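Predict the 3D structure for this chain.
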Amino acid sequence: MEKLRFIKEKLEDKKAQDIVILNVSRLTNIADFFVIATANSPVHARALADHLLEEAENAGMDVDHVEGMEFGGWILIDMLDVIVHIFTPEWREYYGIEWIWSEAERVRV
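Done. Predicted structure below.
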C-alpha cells in the first residue's frame, strides 16, 4: 500500500484528476494494481509521467518500461506490480479501462 500511496501522491503533486486504483491481482498476472489518472492535455500527461518517474527513481523504485510519452494521450508506466495509466479525458473515455476491469476491487489509500 505504501507504493500505491506514493504513486497517488506524486500524481496529485502535479494535479492529476480522477485517480482510481484497481486491485487486479485476482483477474490477471500482469500486475497486482492499476492506477488510472486523467491529465487535462498531452503536455500535462507527460509532466505527470516525468514527475512520477523522477520521484520513483529518487526513491529507488523499479520501472520496467514506459510507453506513450511521445504522443501523451495514454502513457503507461510499468512499475512491475503496479501499472500506471495516465490518460487525457478523451483517451480515458475511449479505452474504458475501468469498464474493462469492472470486476476489480477499487482500492483507497
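The chain has a mean pLDDT of 96.
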